[in-house]
Write a structure and sequence with these properties.
The complex is a heterodimer of chains A (118) and B (110). By secondary structure, chain A is mainly beta. Chain A is 0% helix and 50% strand. Chain A has no helices and 10 strands. In chain A, strands 3, 4, 5, 8, 9 and 10 form a 6-stranded antiparallel beta sheet that branches. A 4-stranded antiparallel beta sheet of chain A has the order 1-2-7-6, with no helix packed on it. The model of chain A has no long low-confidence stretch (mean pLDDT 95). Chain B is mainly β and 110 residues long. Chain B is built from no helices and 9 strands. Chain B starts with 8 loop residues before the first strand and ends with a strand. The model of chain B has no long low-confidence stretch (mean pLDDT 97). Classes of the chains: A mainly beta (118), B mainly beta (110).
Chain lengths: 118, 110
């Protein structure tokens, strides 16, 4: 059974870049699509973007090009970078597997809380 | 790309049925049968309950069912149980390889 685990360096300062990695186990990353979703404390889910193993990507237009998702098939990992962060980017960040035929997320990581604070 | 509209809260007594609505537009829910529903307990990751508007993943109770009419999708929970108390989110394909989530609905079992 495919499992996902997010990891990151911890708190981020305003205007800096948030970097997270999702490690996939129990299956190859070289199939399916892989996405990032975030949830500010007490608020709703927000889709950030997704990537295919070929490297093709799609992003939420609301993030205005601040987000970049990349993939490393040799490590079975994919990553998120979000530039110029503000307090509004503080959230639990989830990585998930996306079924690209039905556009649904069928496997999720446990999530990691990222706080943006000076 | 605007969030799909869900009621903030829905409640019901054990054994009853409740329905959560998810209203979008002709650009998302209305144009595709690509609506999914997720259950999220406090402090936990979301879990897929319904996909492609009405299909249930293996392992999900048949008390959960989904439907869609026009720009509105719905999730019905029948035989409500205490363990169903959670937040529920809808999600739809929105064209141009994008997806959009709803604002979430808190289900309370009275």
């Amino acid at each position: 059974q495919v499992q996902l685990q997010e990891s990151g360096p911890g708190p981020v300062k305003p205007s800096e870049t948030l970097s997270l990695t999702c490690s996939v186990s129990g299956g190859s990353i070289s199939s399916n699509y892989w996405g990032w979703i975030r949830q500010p404390p007490g608020k709703e889910l927000e889709w950030i973007g997704y990537i295919y193993h070929s490297g093709s990507t799609s992003y939420n237009p609301s993030l205005k090009s601040r987000a970049t998702i990349s993939i490393d098939t040799s490590k079975n990992q994919f990553s998120l970078k979000l530039t110029s962060v503000t307090a509004a980017d503080s959230a639990v960040y989830y990585c998930a597997r996306l079924d690209a035929m039905g556009y649904y997320f069928d496997r999720w990581g446990q999530g990691t809380l990222v706080t943006v604070s000076s | 790309q605007s969030a799909l509209t869900q009621p903030a809260s829905v409640s019901g007594s054990p054994g009853q049925s409740i329905t959560i609505s998810c209203t979008g537009t002709s650009s998302d829910v209305g144009s595709y049968n690509l609506v999914s529903w997720y259950q999220q307990h406090p402090g936990k990751a979301p879990e897929l309950m319904i996909y492609e508007a009405s299909k249930r993943p293996s392992g999900v109770s048949n008390r959960f069912s989904g439907s869609k009419s026009g720009n509105t999708a719905s999730l019905t929970i029948s035989g409500l149980q205490a363990e169903d108390e959670a937040d529920y989110y809808c999600c739809s394909y929105a064209g141009s390889s994008t997806v959009v989530f709803g604002g979430g609905t808190k289900v309370t079992v009275l």
